[in-house]
Design a protein that fits this description.
alpha+beta; elongated; about 240 residues; 9-stranded mixed beta sheet; single chain; binds uracil; 4-stranded antiparallel beta sheet
Length: about 240
């Protein structure tokens, strides 16, 4: 007999979603067990015996977990499929990973840099839940200069979409030929947050790159390439 687990855990084990998101999928009627649609919570299934379908496609628990980082290029979306048929980060993963891995959080189409990917829904939950306040550091090139007042406003928090951002760490790295380079660290993840924060202080972002998540750094991984996280990086992000 296979292990018996709750349906939302089974879905998370398949890498299709975190447990919490899996509950939503069940409530929304997207899941069936042995051909019967299930929308109530609390159902248990037996791994290897019961057949679970999500949106009509069978999903199976992937017992081997994959944890990778990708240096996302500009011009890729971080969703699994795109309504405009733009390239997705999944296209960059290749054959070596034998499971469906999913982006951990988002990066904008026009943002480059560190993107974690995994088939472990619990890892995704840990890294993305706001309560864990994991720092994310970005390097932004902005057009022209920025005033000390602007820098300090970013440090204190600015209003974007009726929301006051938490204090950020902000450091000016260089300013030459009409371009200022700024390193900024935030722990929130509102939609287009860094771009909107700069907009709020009158600055136009020319390029944006994420260089670290907590202590996990992009380093010199080439654009468009991925690597496995080390066991040290995985246990650090899991704790
Ligand atoms: N902030 C942004 O504006 N864009 C990103 O992709 C990430 C953070």
């Amino acid at each position: 007999m296979g292990e018996i687990v709750r349906l939302q855990k089974y879905i998370a084990m398949s890498g299709a979603a975190s447990r919490r998101a899996a509950e939503e999928m069940i409530k929304n009627g997207r899941v069936s067990v042995n051909g019967v649609p299930v929308s109530e919570m609390g159902i248990k299934v037996e791994i290897g015996a019961d057949k679970v379908h999500l949106d009509g496609k069978e999903i199976k628990p992937e017992l081997k977990k994959y944890y990778i980082m990708l240096n996302k290029p500009v011009g890729y979306v971080t969703t699994v499929s795109d309504q405009f048929d733009r390239p997705t980060v999944i296209d960059l993963i290749g054959e070596e990973i034998k499971a469906r891995v999913f982006p951990v959080g988002r990066l904008d189409y026009d943002t480059q840099g560190l993107l974690l990917m995994t088939n472990d829904g619990d890892f995704t939950y840990k890294v993305t839940h706001p309560k864990h306040r994991i720092d994310k550091t970005y390097v932004a090139e902005i057009k022209g200069g920025i005033t000390v007042k602007g820098l300090n406003a970013l440090r204190r928090g600015v209003i974007i979409d009726d929301y006051k951002t938490s204090p950020a760490e902000v450091e000016m790295l260089s300013a030459e030929k009409g371009v200022t380079v700024i390193k900024i660290t935030i722990h929130e993840g509102k939609n287009r947050q860094v771009r909107k924060m700069f907009e709020a202080v009158g600055c136009k972002v020319l390029s944006l790159k994420r260089i670290s998540i907590g202590k996990v750094e992009l380093g010199n991984l080439p654009i468009g390439r991925w690597r496995y996280l080390t066991s040290h990086e995985i246990s650090y992000l899991m704790k």
